[in-house]
Amino acid sequence: MASPTMTSTQRRVLAVAILASFVAFLDGTIVNVALPAIQRDLGGGLITQQWTVDAYLITLGSLILVAGSVSDAFGRVLVLRIGLIGFGIASIAVGLAPDPIFLIVARAVQGAAGAFLVPSSLALITSTFEGHARGRAIGIWTGLTTIAMIAGPLLGGLLVDLASWRYAFLINVVPIAITLWLVHPLRKTDRRMPDASIDWLGAILCTVGLGAAVFALIEQPNLGWDSPIIWLSLGGGILLFGLFLLRQRTARSPILPLGLFRARNFWAGNVATTFVYAALSLNGFVVAVYLQQGAGLPATLAGLASLPATAMMILLSSRAGALSDTFGPRFFMTVGPLVMAIGSLLLLTVSPDFNYWLQVLPGIVLFGLGLATTVSPLTSAVLGAVDTARSGIASAVNNAVARVAGLLAVAMLAAITGGSLDLTGFHRSAIVTAVLLTAGGIASFLGIRNPPHEDARLSP
């Protein structure tokens, strides 16, 4: 996993960063293949399935901004340890949930704890590695953590078929315990910024605003647009999120420093992130659920369907990170999403006479190839656009953008599918996924610039 030229501290930091992020990403995707079993056990239909995903993403996407500020202010290692402990406790609560409401609340708490993991992990890497070593380290981190996003359905399927969906969450305790043991010696090298303060009002506005808007999108097919609950929730959510953005212009220590977006590659990379990760979340949800409920596959086989994409990430992600560091990210961030879009369109060949090898596998392979080409260069472009002193909040912003894009895509699932995840709904989702990915490639081509040298960054 790590280069022999790395120091022992660098190897430990990379291992900690990978494991901590792996847990958060794994849990974010392992749930997809468990959704049919959760629905059968606890009830609630498609709405419960959507909330099981989005309750996690709402708190993750909004509080990850606060976690980025806390990470820079009070130390990456301390924040990481808090996140790991909270995530472990919440995972146990999810695994023991007796009803949908308890499950959804526990998932929200789990997302809040997960928000403390990813920014601190990336910030540890960017503050420990320099130059080409940083690009390679981010490539390794990206490859192994993105595998979690793809391999989650496989692990979840095995646990659902062989034991229970509850073990898909309880299993988190093992890697969390290992990571806590590995991170303990790093506390002596922890870094923090003096005179720091946290914008808690901004955090509340962001979280409640996103939550209200997502509530409206998920419940709209059930209550209808003429329901005052829907339009008040949607309007109130948009208003609160707008107030959050205004707050960030005046707060002494904003959780979303708008000045970061003066760096071209930072704002362009986040625009690309919005399209690409919305597509990833939509595709992951729809494929995992349809292969079980529509094509009739058991959970394990539905999870195995993503295995070729996992292989693409293992083989190519680190190499793509190194090539991007040498030649610049623009080409990779343009071509990668377009390849994924072609893979998504190939899923239109799925028919009532289902055949995985001819109808699904070619699209999955192309999707994995494009993903491996895209993710590491995207991460490097965004983090390389700002000074390392701002790496914690920069990674938090990028991850927040990715999670918010994903939760909105899942929240709009009923509108995308026409209210039912049947074959027609599956095809409609594939088309929307391809459109989103094409938009991501175009945004990268138009917005990303290959930096002429390493010092072309925005100073703090």
Helices and strands in order:
Elements: H1 8-42, H2 45-74, H3 76-95, H4 100-114, H5 118-128, H6 131-162, H7 167-170, H8 173-183, H9 200-223, H10 228-250, H11 264-293, H12 299-304, H13 307-327, H14 330-346, H15 356-384, H16 391-411, H17 413-417, H18 423-447
Describe this structure as you would to a colleague.
This protein is an all-alpha fold and 460 residues long. The chain folds into two domains: 8-188 and 253-447, MFS general substrate transporter like domains (Growth Hormone, Chain: A); 199-252. It is 78% helix and 0% strand. It is built from 18 helices and no strands. Mean pLDDT is 87; it is low at 454-460.
Total discrete domains = 2
Distance between the termini: 32 Å
Question: Could you describe the largest sheet, including whether it forms a barrel?
Answer: none
CATH architecture heading of the largest domain:
Up-down Bundle
* Strand coverage percent: under 5%
Order of helices and strands: HHHHHHHHHHHHHHHHHH
* Name of the level-1 CATH class of the largest domain: Mainly Alpha
Overall shape:
globular
Total number of beta strands: 0
CATH topology of the largest domain: Growth Hormone, Chain: A
Helix content: over 70%
Could you give me the name of the CATH homologous superfamily of the largest domain? Answer: MFS general substrate transporter like domains
